[in-house]
Amino acid sequence: MKALKIILAILLFLCLLDMPYGYYQFVRFVSFVVFVFFAYQANQKDNKTEAFVFVALALLFQPFVKIALGRTLWNLVDVVVGIGLVLSVFFEPVKKNK
Hints:
98 residues, mainly alpha, 4 helices, 0% strand
């Protein structure tokens, strides 16, 4: 799962470059699939907050209905989400005692 986060972060950071439009469509599709998978994993671990965040990201990046935020705002989203993914690899969430 950590490798998947790093790969997705790299894909998002590459969106800052001037890439063909097909690349951005590819990243949206891959991001959607990966965030749905992460949401499922978080839900299985009964981590509702993390599941909610990943569902929200899956909806933001979903490839079916284009969300027109503009290049600048999408770049900001890509950077923030990419940094969040990288940080989540190095900082595990605190486990709650039941």
